[in-house]
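Reviewers of the previous submission asked for a worked example of the structure-prediction workflow described in the proposal, so we include one complete record here. The input consisted solely of the amino acid sequence. No template or homolog information was supplied to the procedure at any stage.
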Amino acid sequence: MEYRISRHAKQEIDRRNISLDIVDNIIGSPDQIVDEYDNKKAYQSIIQMEDGKSYLVRIIVNNTIEPAVVVTVYRTSKISKYWREP
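From that input alone, the workflow returned the following structure tokens.
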């Protein structure tokens, strides 16, 4: 999928110390895509970070426009809160 990263998302990626490689890999091959607010989607995968802990990395994307826009990116340890079982 072709996408661009919003200014806000870039700031959050930097602030939260999430690499652009992680963002690109998740968008290219997410573990899940979950519907979110305002027709946005969360591309998400469980990633083991440098500290050895597993986190859910969520990338909120507006893909109703071309190219799709990454709205924000964050990681959370509350995996069960956001993970959707099939």
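Residues 3-78 form one domain. We consider this example representative of the routine output the project will generate in years two and three.
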